[in-house]
Amino acid sequence: MLDIKFIRENLDVVKMAAVKKKITIDLDRLVVVDDARKALMTTIETRKAEQNRVSSDIASATDAAVRTQLITEMQAVKIEIQADEEKLKPLMEEWKTLMLQVPNVPDMTVPDGDSDADNVEIRTWGEQTKFAFESKDHVEIMLKHGMVDFERGAKVHGFRGYYMLGDGARLMWAIWNYANDFFSARDFVQMIPPTIVRKSNLYGTGHLPNDADDVYRTQDEDYLIGTSEVPGMGFYSDEILEQSQLPVKFMAFSPCFRREAGSHSKDVKGLIRVHEFYKVEQIIICEASHEESVKWHEEITNNSEEFMQSLGIPHHVVLNCGADIGQGQVKKYDIEAWVP
RNA sequence: GGAGGAUUGGGUGAGUGGUUGAAACCAACGGUUUACUAAACCGUCGGGCCCUAACCGGCCUCGUGAGUUCGAAUCUCACAUCCUCCGCCA
């Protein structure tokens, strides 16, 4: 969530950010609500100051009559404060709702666009593999080798459930171990986080309220993470770090849970858009400046590319357009493998 | 799931309704002294918000949220976390 001061001082920039990200939000309304909020709070605080001042007079008053009179006066002030606080409540509701919708300001280089079709290819690596024969997809190959079982997966879990078996399971272990070695060598601290988290962590990372339909919720009002970014960022929440500690780099490994609501008709086949999977995530906590965050984001992207390259997987890097990045995001690349 | 105890500033820890945002000690920081270090002594020392060019000033904050009261760290309720014991434990 952006600071209201920053929003007010850079209103035009934030408005342009919303336009670029195709987010509808009435920022002028936010300013109006914020003005009202500040005015009311000033009134309340002035009354409270009076209350505090007279309270100590009451404490030191020796004359019983004076004391009683002061208390009577303060009873009236108390009622006024309570009335103002009631007025403040709906104002704060609207203020918070609007604040949670304010988009983070995207980097200059983020292209304009309406959908992922407008994403821009930045660079490619390797040659797109071409076979002299008609190739099979991953589903066919894995089934043939007993690496996965979708039918029993669906029987046990339901839609898009899967069992990884034999070499399929071994391959997953191998990739995790390989990734662990790869990123540990680049000064990332390994982290295995909790996957059941409190709501506040999802607000903190912008997954709520935006992705509410995609998040699993427990009967205790806790949430299952869709990415270890959530507990990874929650790690230092409500804490203040010394500049000398930065950047903090985590390589978090966790199961991820996603409802994939509304995506049932897309990409129907195979191990994509599943409800449950495992993921290694790079997390870097750096100084809160645009330059620093973009710099470390480039490093993360570079690490991912080199990871792909070390496996010899041809790929291209795509810069996502405004409409295809999250409300909280500044810049985003997709590194897409070229599969035959 | 049940019973009991706890939660105060960077740390230890006092404080059970009224100049307590909070004693004391430690740590930290600045200074005096010192050839240097140590010691000693003096001073500073939580955070957020509002106002201000700044100073000054104001509000909030003693796990969180409500409540009682003219006034709450202190009383009431709910919740969270930690500790001890019992139960459960694929």
Question: Can you tell me about this structure?
Answer:
The structure is a single chain. With 340 residues, the protein is of the alpha+beta class. Helix content is 46%, strand content 14%. The protein has ten helices and ten strands. The protein has helices at residues 4-9, 11-21, 27-60, 64-101, 138-144, 150-156, 166-184, 199-204, 229-234, 290-310; strands at residues 120-125, 148-149, 163-164, 189-191, 196-197, 223-224, 248-257, 276-285, 315-319, 333-337. The strands form four sheets. The protein has a three-stranded antiparallel β-sheet with strand order 1-9-10, covered by helices on one side. It has a three-stranded mixed β-sheet with strand order 4-7-8. The chain is elongated, with a radius of gyration of 27 Å. The two termini are 41 Å apart. The model has no long low-confidence stretch (mean pLDDT 90). It binds one RNA strand of 90 nucleotides through helix 3 and helix 4.
Helix content: 40-55%
Structural class: alpha+beta
Number of helices: 10
Give the overall average pLDDT: 90
CA-based shape: elongated
Strand order in the largest sheet: 1-9-10
Based on CA atoms alone, the radius of gyration comes out at 27 Å
Order of helices and strands: HHHHEHEHEHEEHEHEEHEE
Q: What is the percentage of strand-forming residues?
A: 5-15%
What about the largest sheet?
3 strands, antiparallel
How many E strands?
10
Distance between the termini: 41 Å
Which residues form runs of ≥5 with pLDDT under 50? none
Brief account:
This protein has 340 residues and is an alpha+beta fold.
